[in-house]
Design goal:
By secondary structure, the chain is mostly helical. Helices cover 70% and strands 0% of the residues. It is elongated, with a radius of gyration of 17 Å.
C-alpha cells in the first residue's frame, strides 16, 4: 500500500462515514453535464440569432466547468483517501483530458482501474451527447 486507502470505494463506504459534502462526486458530474447542455444551447442559439455569445457567459461557463471538474476531483480524492498533490490539482484544471485518466488509473485499486477509465470514456461520451442535445434544441427553438 502506498499510504492511502486504496481499498475504499465510494459505494463501499458506510452511511455514517462522516463525510457530508454539499454535493457528491456523481452530483458534480451531473452538474457538469447540465452545464455542457446549457452552454451549447446558449452558444448555438446565439450563433443562430447572429447576436454572438456574450463574453460574460463564456467566462462564466469556463469558470464553472473548471470548478465543477476540480470539485469532482476533490470529492473523489477525499472519499478514497488519496493524498493531496498540488501538481495533480493544477493538472485537473488545466489539462483535464490527460489528468483525469491519470488520476483514475492511479487512484483506483487493482482490479478497478480499467473500470474507472471506462467510466471516464463513458462520461466523455455523455458530455458529447449533452452538447449535441443542446445544439439540437437550440436549432429547434430558433
Amino acid at each position: 500500500m502506498s499510504g492511502h486507502a486504496e481499498h475504499l470505494v465510494a459505494e463501499d463506504l458506510p452511511d455514517d462515514y462522516g463525510y457530508d459534502p454539499v454535493m457528491t462526486p456523481r452530483g458534480a458530474l451531473v452538474a457538469l453535464s447540465v452545464l455542457m447542455f446549457v452552454s451549447t444551447l446558449v452558444e448555438v442559439g446565439a450563433g443562430l440569432s447572429r447576436r454572438g455569445e456574450p463574453v460574460l457567459w463564456s467566462l462564466l461557463t469556463g469558470l464553472l466547468s473548471s470548478f465543477l471538474g476540480f470539485y469532482w476531483f476533490r470529492l473523489d480524492r477525499e472519499l478514497r483517501g488519496w493524498p493531496r498533490s498540488r501538481w495533480l490539482s493544477v493538472a485537473i484544471v488545466t489539462i483535464t483530458p490527460l489528468a483525469v485518466p491519470y488520476y483514475l488509473a492511479r487512484s483506483r485499486p487493482k482490479g478497478r482501474k480499467l473500470r474507472g477509465l471506462a467510466g471516464f470514456v463513458g462520461y466523455v461520451f455523455l458530455m458529447l451527447v449533452a452538447s449535441m442535445a443542446g445544439a439540437i434544441l437550440a436549432q429547434l427553438l430558433a
